[in-house]
Design brief:
With 232 residues, the protein is of the alpha/beta class. The protein is 41% helix and 22% strand.
Length: 232
């Protein structure tokens, strides 16, 4: 098995060490950078498999590091997990919209943290389904071509917008999407929906999904996510 290289960009030495110690124990190769500038240099020279990026950094901050990585085609596909302090929802939203893959709020539970890293690495290697590919889950089947949804084999009638939102979230299970990202994705398909109406649409969607309603998870202050496994 090839060792995956994880870069942590964080100025707080104790967090850096804690992360390094625990990820090394899991078999990952870990390198660290103390500032945004150093982080960008390390990304450039090492091409890590994943970056753990603290948002609060001296000098070039985490959001700017994320923006520059996503702008450069050579580094745009490297997954990023943001580290944020509790209550910084607006930063989380900004980071996700800039292309970060996930986030962990400090103080974090190490087990949760390691699980997130594994999940993001796994997801980054899985191609998103093609436009017309049927999405199958034990309790839910989504037929993009037929505009059809089955919950436990029972057909469910959704509006165009509800269908668009469900298809978008379910195309990448486990990923958090902000309202703005959902609007952008759904709008591209010709539906009309605003950021404010996303919440309203989701309420209607959940009601119609009955037993599968819990698949659509609200991520407070951030957006929505399609749950990968049903009972977690
Ligand atoms: Ca920091």
């Amino acid at each position: 098995m090839s060792e995956e290289n994880i870069l942590i960009v964080e100025d707080e030495k104790d967090i850096q060490e804690l992360v390094r110690y625990n990820l090394s124990k899991e078999g990952y190769r870990v390198t660290s950078a103390d500032s945004g500038e150093e982080g960008l240099k390390a990304v450039e020279s090492q091409r890590p498999d994943l970056v753990v990026l603290d948002l609060m950094l001296p000098g070039v901050d985490g959001l700017e590091v994320c923006r520059r990585m996503k702008k450069d085609p050579a580094t745009a596909n490297i997954p990023i997990i943001m580290l944020t302090a509790k209550g910084e929802e607006s930063d989380i939203v900004a980071g996700l919209e800039m292309g970060a893959d996930d986030y962990v709020t400090k103080p974090f539970n190490l087990k949760v943290f390691v699980t997130r890293i594994r999940a993001v690495l796994r997801r980054s290697k899985t191609e998103p389904p093609k436009e017309e590919e049927v999405l199958r889950f034990p309790d839910l089947v989504i037929h993009p071509g037929r505009h059809e949804v089955l919950v436990n084999d029972q057909p469910v009638s959704l509006t165009f917008t509800e269908f668009g939102i469900l298809k978008y979230l379910a195309s990448r299970p486990g990923w958090v999407f902000t309202r703005c990202q959902i609007v952008e994705a759904v709008r591209g398909d010709g539906y009309s929906v605003t950021e404010r109406s996303v919440d309203f649409q989701v309420v209607g969607l959940r009601k119609k999904l009955t037993e599968a309603a819990d698949r659509i998870e609200t991520v407070r202050g951030v957006g929505y996510r399609f749950k990968e496994t049903f009972n977690d």
